[in-house]
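Severity: low
Component: inverse-folding endpoint
Summary: output formatting inconsistent between runs
Steps to reproduce: submit the following structure tokens with default settings.
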């Protein structure tokens, strides 16, 4: 193997303009590890910006619909919120009517419905088109329609159909994001410590939610339109950065992996096998079809599990600031901006949960056991948050943080490490052109649940928030039960491994021969 800094022939690849500019300045080609660092940073920022634009709607909900959920019988807290234009206090037609909460729920489900179905097509395209171009188009389109939602504030638009169609188009462009970023990261990283690496990398979801909450909350005082326009401009800018510098695969830039990357550890039990990095000759294999991808062992159970896991996670994503502002904490109601900022604690817990789930699953070599355990632990966490979250602000913060750990932990694990594992399953015989399709199937199915959860919450919350939390706890239980067969298989594999070794059960995966 030649040096990582040797000039590479440019006949079989075309590097992004930004990469060529960097190499021109440095007067040498970039190393493999430098490319990996660029991929992690750029895809992290890219998907964080996706979630930042997605989070704004939940923060603005209470400004559009300030007096909904009258069944909670609280005094109009918004009148006490100083320094805010009166237009925020009176809401925004048509969402300030008695059915405003339901209308907002319908917009959520329209966005997520288009997003989930668009995900299947995006995964199909991702295995066949240039991922850098697909991702750029998706980000710029998302920025455009996110900003157009906010433009309705200045143009004085009050047609429900305008906001509905705008969010449906935004959902279509948003669907390009996840299959693309997972496929790009999968192209550059092998099996070794994938759960931990992707657990840390997946913090982009929570970081994006936090940034979206903070930016949208800060801009509410200047008019809710800014809460959409600024995040829309942010994701469009990051999209241009993606176009300029993102290397989608080693083959696309002529990078050569070091020995430890070429021979990254593999799992030898059924369910996970080949490394994600394939040779150029393998890269020309035919892309895996949609039905064929569904038949890969483990895809269907994890996809259905994610359906219920994302139902819980996205209900919090879209309704947590609204719930906080409509629930008395120590007898007081918080403002929209304060509730939006406080809701970021859930996302901080999500960062910890994603890293923890990834590390545990790597250590135990058991993805299903880890995901199911977290879902079962989410049930008491949800119960205690609903029951005791109103006692005091510190108690609310602590319980919200714990709930974020157990709700977002398995969600992060399944959408990253598990998707990457199954996208390189042994049944594919080394074909690397299945990763985006498998990722899209799993996350697309989960996104259907993500659409249903907020929709049901919009109707149920008008009657009882306790009923909403009952729905979430039941969903967490079903999500865990759907992995039972895989959990049993992993436990049986552990017992068999211990029997072969003639000692206590080992929690570490077999090491490759040197």
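Observed output (run 2 of 3):
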């Amino acid at each position: 193997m030649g040096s990582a800094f040797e000039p590479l022939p440019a006949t079989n690849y075309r590097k992004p303009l930004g990469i060529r500019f960097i190499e021109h300045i440095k007067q040498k080609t970039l190393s493999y590890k430098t490319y990996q660092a660029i991929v992690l940073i750029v895809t992290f920022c890219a998907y964080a910006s996706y979630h930042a634009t997605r989070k704004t709607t939940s923060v603005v909900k209470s400004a559009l619909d300030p007096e909904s959920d009258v069944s909670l019988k609280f005094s109009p807290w918004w009148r006490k919120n100083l320094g805010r234009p009166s237009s925020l206090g009176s809401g925004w037609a048509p969402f300030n009517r008695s059915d405003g909460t339901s209308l907002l729920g319908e917009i959520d489900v329209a966005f997520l419905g288009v997003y989930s179905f668009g995900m299947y097509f995006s995964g199909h395209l991702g295995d066949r088109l240039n991922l850098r171009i697909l991702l750029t188009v998706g980000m710029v389109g998302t920025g455009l329609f996110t900003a157009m939602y906010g433009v309705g504030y200045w143009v004085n638009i009050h047609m429900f159909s305008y906001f509905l169609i705008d969010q449906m188009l935004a959902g279509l462009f948003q669907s390009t994001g996840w299959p693309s970023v997972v496929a790009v990261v999968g192209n550059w990283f092998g099996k070794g410590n994938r759960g931990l690496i992707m657990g840390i990398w997946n913090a982009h979801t929570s970081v994006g939610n936090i940034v979206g909450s903070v930016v949208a909350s800060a801009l509410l005082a200047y008019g809710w339109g800014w809460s959409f326009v600024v995040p829309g401009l942010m994701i469009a800018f990051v999209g241009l950065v993606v176009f300029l510098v993102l290397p989608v695969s080693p083959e696309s830039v002529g990078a050569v992996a070091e020995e430890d990357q070429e021979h990254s550890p593999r799992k030898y039990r059924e369910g996970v096998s080949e490394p994600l990095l394939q040779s150029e000759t393998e890269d020309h294999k035919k892309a895996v079809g949609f039905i064929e991808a569904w038949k890969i062992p483990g895809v269907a159970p994890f996809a259905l599990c994610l359906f219920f896991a994302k139902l819980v996670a996205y209900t919090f994503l879209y309704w947590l600031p609204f719930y906080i502002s409509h629930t008395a904490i120590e007898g007081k109601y918080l403002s929209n901006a304060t509730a939006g900022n406080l809701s970021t604690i859930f996302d901080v817990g999500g960062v910890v949960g994603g890293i923890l789930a990834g590390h545990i699953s790597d250590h135990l070599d058991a993805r299903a056991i880890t995901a199911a355990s977290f879902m079962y632990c989410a049930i008491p966490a949800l119960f205690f948050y609903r029951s005791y979250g109103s006692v005091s602000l510190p108690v609310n913060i602590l319980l919200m943080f714990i709930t974020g750990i157990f709700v977002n932990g398995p969600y992060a694990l399944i959408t990253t490490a598990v998707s990457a594992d199954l996208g390189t399953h042994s049944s594919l015989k080394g074909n690397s052109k299945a990763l985006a399709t498998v990722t899209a199937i799993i996350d697309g199915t989960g996104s259907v649940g993500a659409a249903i959860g907020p929709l049901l919450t919009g109707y149920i919350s008008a009657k009882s928030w306790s009923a909403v939390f009952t729905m979430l706890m039941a969903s967490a239980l079903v999500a865990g039960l759907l992995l039972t067969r895989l959990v049993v298989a992993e436990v049986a594999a552990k017992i068999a491994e211990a029997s072969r070794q003639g000692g206590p059960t080992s929690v570490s995966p077999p090491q490759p021969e040197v």
